[in-house]
Write a structure and sequence with these properties.
binds flavin-adenine dinucleotide, 17 strands, Uridine Diphospho-n-acetylenolpyruvylglucosamine Reductase, domain 3, 12 helices, 20% strand, alpha+beta, five-stranded antiparallel β-sheet, eight-stranded antiparallel β-sheet
Length: 500
């Protein structure tokens, strides 16, 4: 590990102690940059204080970059993607775009993961990552075959879908139980045959000027998105090969945006895409995609375009100016949605997205397709309990200076609390909502000031799957070596969040 164990005096220290969200910084005594599993094991076994695991550094909360962290293990150097004996191996430190490039170039396959190129496999897959192919092909964890994990004390195990007893629990805990609770994943294993991505996709990106939206038209837009997803929720729906993002930016942005992609070889693909655009946009005036949500301008996609899949994936994954800002600060909250939103929630969304005291163009509500093939899997088959939702909502704001923290955080918090006013300020699983996505973590869910529902944070993320996660935790990490603010608590431990 010569040169790859850093202290605060090392010139590289600052690069490895903050994530994409500059609100969070760690001050570890030691940063480990391992390249092999034995080097990870040695870092873990020699650790004398709180350990933090980082792959892509995209965590929405301070789980990785926390001031109490004493040893930070950064997996970025373990990014190999390989295939042997019928099994694909993906290094936990690989960035999603590298995973897509290498799997496709090497073997013509992929995993149905997220859009942003720089998200790390380590956090993404352990949290049940999903993306634009998930309505067609399911979640990343639906294809996971095994994981190599370095446990507390430094022992390394490989557990798979075929494991039994406690090892089966450990594998299952890695199919959506969230990162940072059980050990350090060094490699993810996917058995062949893996997903074959579309050869080509049809992609469209359109904006609607806020000037053309009043409350009625806004309600039709969001209502149209929800209704289309409700009608196309089934795995065999003609709409299953299509996914889209509706980016409802605050009016200060000037536009809202819709980005949609469908497998070009799907039956009647052009018609299904056209019907989706009409269902959402109706007769609203659209323009070429300006800048909405995380994305930069996409003028060439104002009409659906046929693109090779990898080229489209590369473009959408890197065309994210907000996220490439090295001074980025952010706040996020999430909700799964089962059924079209009640009128009261649509009205609340309109109210917050038009609030005159907010001027940040990067304050937004994003709706992201779910459903389709995702819903073909039993809620207990993986740790991802939410299987019958049709889309997710992501409440978020991006900004870049400390003095803007309070106003942005307050806007996201108040928006969310108002949306779920009837259920204690959070999306309690019920007829419309179905809890929160663990890969969009939110510390407020375990804060009694912000969650007054009586439903604990872990039930919002994991619902009935939490006891099995606790059983795995009690067996594999009973001393709670791997912990953060919302890590899985060992069975029998006191309720509530971990100490920060
Ligand atoms: C810009 C952006 C776009 C996103 N887009 C999507 C999307 O399209 N779809 C989607 O599903 N999600 C998306 N996400 C959420 C993303 O999946 C999560 O933030 C994910 O946890 C990030 O993983 P990471 O390795 O980059 O993060 P990190 O900050 O490194 O880690 C996140 C969590 O996982 C743990 N962890 C990391 N590596 C390991 C490991 N090797 N072993 C065990 N635990 C580990 C950490 O301790 C931490 O708790 C997005 C996030 C961002 C910031």
């Amino acid at each position: 590990m010569t040169g790859r164990v850093l202290g605060p005096d090392d010139p590289r220290y600052a690069d490895f102690t903050a994530g994409i969200n500059q609100r969070y910084t760690a001050k570890p005594a030691t940063v480990h940059l391992p390249r092999t599993t034995p080097e990870v094991a040695s870092a873990v076994s020699g650790a004398t204080g709180r350990i933090s695991i980082r792959s892509g550094g995209h965590c929405f909360e301070d789980f990785v970059h926390h001031e109490d962290v004493e040893e930070l293990v950064d997996l970025g150097g373990m990014s190999e993607v390989d295939f042997s004996d019928g099994v694909f191996s993906v290094g936990a430190g690989a960035k999603l775009q590298d995973v897509y490039e290498k799997l496709y170039r090497g073997w013509g396959v992929t995993i149905p993961g997220g859009i942003c190129y720089s998200v790390g496999a380590g956090g993404h897959i352990t949290g049940g990552g999903y993306g634009l192919l998930s309505r067609r092909d399911g979640l990343t964890v639906d294809h996971l075959h095994g994981v190599e994990v370095v446990l507390a004390g430094g022992r390394t195990v490989v557990v798979t879908r075929d494991s039994t007893g406690a090892e089966a629990d450990l594998f299952w805990a890695h199919t959506g139980g969230g990162g940072g609770s059980f050990g350090v994943v060094t490699r993810f294993l996917f058995a062949a045959p893996l997903v074959t991505p579309p050869s080509e996709v049809l992609v469209a990106a359109l904006s609607v000027p806020w000037a053309d939206l009043d409350e009625r038209r806004f309600a039709r837009l969001l209502g149209g998105y929800a209704r289309w997803h409700d009608e196309h929720r089934a795995p065999d729906s003609p709409g299953a090969p299509l996914s889209s993002l509706l980016m409802l930016n605050h009016r200060g942005n000037g536009t809202v945006g819709l980005v949609a992609q469908i497998d070009a070889a799907a039956p009647a693909a052009a018609r299904v895409l056209d019907e989706h655009l009409s269902a959402v946009l109706g007769d609203l005036t659209t323009t070429g995609f300006a800048r909405a949500g995380e994305f930069g301008p996409m003028p060439g996609l104002a009409r659906p375009r046929r693109l090779p899949w990898l080229r489209a994936t590369r473009f959408l994954g890197t065309n994210t100016p907000v996220l490439n800002d090295p001074t980025l600060r952010a706040e996020h909250k999430s909700a799964y949605v089962r059924n079209p939103l009640p009128d009261a929630q649509v009205r609340t969304a309109y109210e917050f997205l038009t609030r005159p005291d907010v001027t940040n163009p990067n304050a937004m509500l994003v709706a992201f397709s779910y459903g389709g093939a995702i819903s073909a899997v039993d809620p207990a088959a993986t740790a991802v309990a939410q299987r019958d939702s049709t889309f997710k909502l992501l409440y978020q704001s991006f900004w870049s200076t400390v003095d803007a923290d309070a106003a942005n955080i307050a806007w996201v918090r108040e928006f969310y609390r108002s949306m779920y006013a009837g259920t204690g300020g959070v999306p309690v699983p019920g007829e419309v909502a179905d809890g929160c996505y663990v890969n969009y973590p939110d510390a407020d869910l375990s804060d009694p000031d912000w969650n007054t529902s009586g439903v604990p944070w872990h039930d919002l993320y994991f619902k009935g799957n939490y006891p099995r996660l606790q059983r795995a935790k009690a067996h594999w990490d009973p001393d709670d070596v791997f912990r953060h603010r919302q890590s899985v608590r060992p069975a029998g431990a006191r309720e509530g969040p971990c100490p920060a």
